[in-house]
Design a protein that fits this description.
Mean pLDDT: 87
Strand content: under 5%
Number of domains: 1
Shape: globular
Radius of gyration: 22 Å
Low-confidence stretches: 165-174
């Protein structure tokens, strides 16, 4: 069958218009800041308005070019649309960074990370994929409108640009369900309502409700409105872009830390379960095997890290001895932040002992629940892979026993088992290749194996901070342009769970059959 490109072009055009409108919203905030006299340099306003105009015009042209198409989206068109949507949205989202860096008052005197196109694309991809890795050395150098746009890229990327697209623009017909299945994280997203538009709207209503709740909670706990909004966008998207160089550690408040912990945990839960709660299906939620495993992993990991910190200390040279309550809070915050792939920091965990760091590294690959805004392999895949491994071990010494692999009451068929195993192997391969490429590309910069490996792991699993030179108190600005592009690809692979991107690299995908 012929690949219907006009349908893809039309939808990409509409996506660009939507993203441009959101950039325009950040420009409105820039106007407010200027009216209030908070800033005198108008480079941020010009950059945001110009980008919004360019995106709207280009998006409109693409929509007009594809409007004659009446074909519904097929499987190949859905794959192509998902991958191109994220890439084009990242390019468009990067333009305000580059323009602001060029237009700012001291642009010719003081260099900035955003002077590099690779850095701008990296930052935009990191935002939209909710990775949270940054190339900005000092956040204080950015105007508030640009900080808001960074946080907003997290928020719109949280449940997925494509899901938002389907929710607000019901133009995809039967192809909408194909897009939802490809973009939604996890091996088998549940359609919580019969129509995909209703499903997407339901998810976003829940998402918006949680957003409002966290903004109010953080404000009540003493955080300003601007910081509350930005940190809420980053928390519910499990992203990690903050407004302070010290991340959440800049807010010395246990109440703020615990509020963020609670909402990070909520963001790491399958959003389909929230719909079940709204339908008062308490029993189904309570007995969900992935939810139980997710919470157990968080609790056990918190215990391990707490014991490690009590035995070895923080290792950062602090003179005071934190109380048990503080140690538990810090351990819980970092465990939740890493497993949900948010990437916020309250301490420099790179200074912790081996057991604590090894636990966090393992959690990077486990990730959050399927159907959540988090990244990683996903808890349900870990459950399936573990049960497949145990079944194969039993088969080695009991070859005549045939035992079904189950998750809860659901029997895992052979196709799903194969898919999970292939995906896990694919993640391992991408991690290894990413590490090797970073070691090769930045050999002159003296990159070490720990930095390269954890940078690959942190971007592939959409976490943000790694260890060593890309740790909690560091950034990615020092990496070369090619390395930043490699990491950007890893972010995309992790966010779209590999298959939607890798499929486009197959020559057979483009052939007419």
């Amino acid at each position: 069958m012929t690949l219907e490109l006009r349908t893809v072009i039309r939808q990409v055009g509409m996506l660009m218009i939507v993203v441009s409108a959101l950039i325009g919203a950040a420009a409105i905030f820039a106007v407010y800041d200027h009216v209030q006299g908070n800033v005198t340099d108008r480079s941020d306003l010009i950059a945001l308005l110009l980008t919004s105009f360019i995106g709207t015009v280009v998006g409109g042209v693409l929509f007009l070019l594809g409007r004659a198409s009446t074909e519904a989206l097929g499987q190949r068109e859905a794959l192509l649309l998902v991958a191109t949507s994220w890439i084009i949205a990242a390019v468009l989202s990067a333009i305000p960074y580059r323009l602001w860096a060029s237009f700012r008052v001291n642009a010719a005197v003081v260099p900035h990370s955003f002077d590099s196109l690779a850095s701008c694309f990296f930052e935009a991809m990191s935002g939209l994929t909710t990775t949270g890795a940054t190339t900005v050395e000092q956040l204080s150098t950015l105007p508030r409108s640009i900080l808001l746009w960074r946080a907003l890229t997290h928020w719109i990327g949280g449940l997925g640009i494509v899901v938002l697209f389907v929710a607000v623009l019901p133009l995809l017909g039967v192809g909408g369900r194909r897009i939802y299945r490809l973009e939604s994280p996890g091996p088998s997203p549940d359609g919580v309502t019969p129509r995909i538009q209703d499903t997407a709207r339901s998810l976003w209503l829940i998402y918006v409700g949680l957003t409002l709740a966290e903004v109010l909670a953080l404000k009540i706990c003493g955080m300003g409105w601007f910081d509350s909004v930005c940190h809420t966008f980053a928390t519910l998207a499990t992203g990690g872009f903050g407004t302070k160089d010290a991340s959440v550690a800049a807010f010395d408040s246990s109440a703020i830390h615990y509020v963020i912990i609670v909402f990070m945990v909520l963001a790491g839960v399958n959003f389909g379960l929230y719909h079940q709660l709204m339908q008062r299906r308490w029993r189904k939620v309570r007995k969900d095997p992935e939810l139980r495993a997710y919470l157990v992993i968080l609790l056990v990991a918190t215990g391990v890290v707490t014991i490690s910190l009590m035995g070895n200390g923080y290792g950062d040279g602090r003179a005071d001895n934190p109380s048990f309550a503080v140690v538990v809070r810090d351990a819980m915050f970092q465990v939740v932040s890493i497993q949900t792939t948010t990437g916020f920091c309250t301490v420099d965990f790179d200074q912790w002992g081996f057991a604590a760091k090894a636990t966090l590294l393992a959690l990077m690959f486990v990730g959050a629940s399927a159907g959540s805004t988090g990244g990683g392999i996903k808890v349900v895949r870990i459950l399936i892979a573990g049960k497949v491994l145990l079944a194969e071990l039993e088969h080695a010494y009991r070859p005549r026993v045939v035992r079904a692999v189950k998750i809860g009451r659901a029997v895992i068929d052979a196709d799903l088992k194969l898919t999970v195993v292939v995906y896990v192997l694919g993640i391992a391969l991408a991690f290894a290749l990413g590490t090797i490429l970073l070691m090769m590309l930045d050999a002159d910069a003296g990159i070490d194996i720990t930095s390269a490996a954890t940078a690959a792991a942190a971007t592939l699993n959409n976490i943000g901070p790694g260890l060593a030179s890309v740790g909690a108190t560091h950034h990615y600005a020092w990496l070369s342009g090619p390395s930043k592009l490699v990491l950007s690809v890893l972010m995309l692979l992790g966010r779209l769970e590999m298959f939607a991107v890798v499929a486009l690299c197959s020559p057979r995908f483009w052939r007419e059959e």
